């Protein structure tokens, strides 16, 4: 699970989650004149140089990072297999609504396990660009491989996944609904518009990393929740000492990590005078969000909206 957490953390740091809401146009090239969702074969313009041809609508989808489970579940399409499937379905809050009804083949934690992938017999394989460079040719012999640019917005990734399964209209509806959720949540958070928020992950056993304010769904003023970062809060993912956190002295601290790990990190600091001096601590404004929100997927954005609505109502 540590490797899974690390992958998600990297994705979160690198992703400009809500910086491009306008990038939701279709990039599929139907090769027949049939209507949307029925046009097969079709060429998917993914993050590869030449795109990927799908001869027919895929029924067996294998994803090589559990992040992409979020997108296909949102599109009412259950993948047949995923890396770290059992852990993700058990631990990701974004996937709990589907945990009782989904049967997904667990491919293990290694996306390069060609034998397991072959046994799953997928019609298409979905992963992010750069993760399978050394085995791309071998994977392509099993099934077409769709590569996703992990720096793309959640909107664009939602649409790309929709093109794979022919559900572009549903994707457009979901994107619009989610953008409306963000706007509504931002309006409700206006009661806290002068409050500062520090978004953190746990670094090791007890220290913290700043998630960074640059282009995250939390701080983006145009297409995100528009939270105010404390003065001195870094743009990138940097390690923070308690003293560094104290100099920022945010009104709210959001720790976005595995719940047990985050709770242990907070407990470890309860006796610290520096920790107890923080405004967020004194006012009981230390909030723990589920680790799955670091995926920055469409389900993560929607769940974050729910979390923030509850926060605004307190």
Automatic annotation (TrEMBL):
Annotated ranges, domain Fe/B12 periplasmic-binding: 60-314
Location of this chain's protein in the cell: Cell envelope
InterPro entries listed in its UniProt record: ABC_transptr_periplasmic_BD (IPR002491), Bact_iron-sidero_bind (IPR051313)
Domain of life of the organism encoding this protein: Bacteria
GO biological process: iron coordination entity transport
Region (Disordered): 23-42
PROSITE patterns with a match to the protein in the record: FE_B12_PBP, PROKAR_LIPOPROTEIN
Ranges of Polar residues composition bias in the record: 23-32
A GO CC term assigned to this protein in UniProt: outer membrane-bounded periplasmic space
Pfam families named in the record: Peripla_BP_2 (PF01497)
Family note: Belongs to the bacterial solute-binding protein 8 family.
Database matches in PANTHER family: FERRIC ENTEROBACTIN-BINDING PERIPLASMIC PROTEIN FEPB, IRON III DICITRATE-BINDING PERIPLASMIC PROTEIN
Name of the protein described by the UniProt record: Iron chelate uptake transporter FeCT family ABC transporter periplasmic-binding protein
Species assigned in the record: Paenibacillus amylolyticus
